[in-house]
Amino acid sequence: MNATATAEDLAETLGLLLPEIGCTPEEAIDVLAQAGQEGTVASSGPRWFGLVVGGTLPVAIAADWLTSAWDNNGRAYVLGPLNAVAEHLAAKWLVDLLNLPRGTSVGFTSGSTMAHFTALAAARHRLLADRGWDVERDGLHAAPPVHVAVGAGRHITIDLALRYLGFGTAAMTVVPEDEYGRLNPAELQHALRTHHGPTIVCAQAGNVDTGACDQLAQICDIASEADAWVHVDGAFGLWAAASPDLRHHLHGLETADSWATDAHKWLNVPYDCGIVFVADSHAHQAAMTHSPAGYLSHDGSGPCDPSDWVPEFSRRARAIPVWAALRTLGRRGLADLVNHYCAMARLFATLLAAAPGIEVLNTVILAQVLARFDDSDDVTRRTVASIQASGTCWLATTTWHRQTAMRVSVASWATTESDVRRSVDAILRAWREVRQQAVPTHTIGRQQMNDDEAVFHPESQYSGEGVHLRLGTCDSAPKPSDTIRSVRIGPLVKAVTYDETGRHQEWETDTPDTAGLPLLKVIENTAQIITVYLRDDTGSEDGRYSLTIESFAYGKVTTRSGNPASAFIGAMPKDGPPMTAAFNVRDEQSGQYAATGAIHFIWNPGTESVDVANTTDLPANMACEPTSTANTFTLRLRAKHPADWGFR
Fold first, then answer.
1. Pick from 215, 198, 218: which is nearest to 207 by CA?
2. Is 155's pLDDT higher than 50?
3. Of residues 80 and 508, more confidently modeled
4. pLDDT of residue 97
5. Residue 202 forms beta bridges with which residues?
6. What average pLDDT does the structure give for the chain?
7. Does the pLDDT at position 448 exceed 90?
8. Those residues with Cβ within 8 angstroms of residue 330's Cβ, 6 or more apart along the chain or in another chain
9. DSSP annotation of 86
10. Which of 435, 376, 427, 372 is nearest to 405 (CA)?
11. Residues 222 and 189 sit within 8 Å (Cβ to Cβ)
């Protein structure tokens, strides 16, 4: 299911340098096909469950090939009448299938991000026009401020759309969610009562983790009292409206003002195809329509130009594969397809929950399953990593209620019961292997700390596996009766100790209790090395990014948790030797590192300041903030835009 080639391998296959003389078309395609065997993922296959990435219906692929071969610009009727007519019909069918209000206008975008952008642009137009402001002409400067209420469990694409439209994320009021990840109507009502003026409410049909749908009828009633525009993010969950068995989860959907979804998810057409629906077609068209040049004017024959409903000008004829999928599925076939996803997800949950030690964390409402192994973040992470490496299926981790969970998303027409059972067998096999490899867990007693201080030997050193801090033997070193805290940020602590004979013990604890951290006992007359992993999984709303600070130092170092403020690296006496801190920022969804670096710092008595070296290695979105007190100096790392990386 996974790609097997590295980026370097693929670059070598594709060719690092552009040749002076080109190859034949056949040779180019052969090279591309060779690279594709190892450099693509089977995201359209039957056992891709890690992200909500739809499969591809064969008829939609064929229609997409024809679309490419015709290569008509999909923006205008005159540039390809077939494109405009197919889009008009597909739009009409979709409004009917999803039980949206008659007269709802439809646009085909690149994905949900631009669908949100389009819908919220229509909302911006209507709300400000009703107050006498022409936002398309005069912009937002001096315009009445628009307030936006969003749920804590929203998808990040809502934030992106608000940024692109000039509202900015500061315009948002984040409404708390309930235990299922749904926007809380009572909290929304309270939030709207404290704001006056033009307001947008962003609701959700299908939480990306649990599949739970907001209580749309209540939300729309509350918003109506405040004369607010309601937009529904239904990237995958909106398709439940096409199923008589599932549409009750979306009760009140039709009373919203705009909706967004992806056809490349549950409709299983090729990338890329998002869809925006707006009940107020006049606001929709006014927000998108351009003033055409004379040679582009529409003569009124045929359907409206597709570009009247989306931001793009030149664009692919995305609606042709949508038409093909709907034409072959029909009303009943689409309902069966949507029901199929949810049935496979329920089977997943049933099989996983039957294994003692595996907990299914959510009620399966649509096609999302959350599972956790041995109630352990570490076991869950390692199990998912092992599954990904096996190639049988592909799943990902997420953070739910501050715990790591495996997320299963069913979104392919090709997934069968056999695929689910085969995948569950692979999951159980990986989990058992992780259990066998696991080091026995030891309970670490909680004892009184000695001022949170530890004295480290000058031979302490950093390695790629963590921080190796050799305990000193000088007079100020910890005594056998002393204890030191295993420094950390966040809920995960790992430690390894070695005695003079080479024997070692490994400890691991997953406690969310940041007030009472575990302690490591100092052993008398031993050469003890402690490996400490510092992690911050608490700063981000969705838990996507973790900050790992791997530091080593010479001299006396005090390290404390920085939660929930700045990422705290360390404090040292002003007369101490230099300190070095290595850090990385990891994307917990992809497993890739977003930033890495190292910082060297020391107190400079000549200038009474902290000298920090190598800050040129810092990413643009990270700030290094040295500070000093009477006797010590401290170094902090800070994300300039916390929403980007999830730590402050």
1. 215
2. yes
3. 80
4. 98
5. 150, 231
6. 77
7. no
8. none
9. H
10. 372
11. yes
CB 298 within 8 A of CB 77: yes
pLDDT band at 531 (very low <50, low <70, confident <90, very high): very low
- What DSSP designation does 438 have? P
- Lowest-confidence region among 180-194, 339-353, 467-481: 467-481
Give 242's DSSP letter.
G
Q: What is the pLDDT averaged over residues 216-230?
A: 97
Q: Report yes or no: 544 and 402 within 8 Å, Cβ to Cβ.
A: no
Q: How far is it between the farthest Cα atoms of the chain?
A: 92
Kindly give, in sequence order, each residue whose CB lies less than 8 Å from that of residue 27, ignoring residues fewer than 6 positions away: none
Residue range 564-576: mean pLDDT, rounded = 46
**Which amino acid is it at 99?**
N
Dist CA 319 CA 223 (whole Å) = 32
d(CA 420, CA 135): 51
Q: What are phi and psi of 394, to 5 degrees?
A: -130, 125
Q: At what angle do helices 7-14 and 25-39 cross, to 10 degrees?
A: 170
For the record, the structure tokens of 308 come out as 């009247």
- Region 226-254 average pLDDT: 97
Angstrom distance (rounded) from CA 400 to CA 542? 8
Q: List, as one string, the DSSP characters of 126-160.
A: HHHHTTT--HHHH-STTSPPPEEEEETT--HHHHH
Burial classification of residue 642, based on how many CB atoms lie within 10 Å of its CB (0-12 exposed, 13-18 middle, 19 or more buried): middle
Q: Specify the pLDDT at position 509.
A: 42
Torsion over CA: 638, 643, 647, 648 (sign): positive
Regarding predicted confidence, which is higher, 189 or 528?
Answer: 189
Q: Report how far residue 241's alpha carbon sits from residue 98's, in angstroms, rounded to the nearest whole number.
A: 5
Sorting pLDDT into bands at 50, 70 and 90, what band is 196? confident
pLDDT > 60? residue 412:
yes
Give the model's pLDDT for residue 543: 37
Report the half-sphere exposure of 469 (CA within 13 A, side-chain side): 31
Q: Which residues pair with 394 in a beta bridge?
A: 48
- Nearest C-alpha neighbor of 98 from the set 246, 228, 317, 200: 246
Other C-beta atoms within 10 Å of 590: how many?
12
For 139, what's the count of Cα atoms within 13 Å in the CB-facing half-sphere?
3
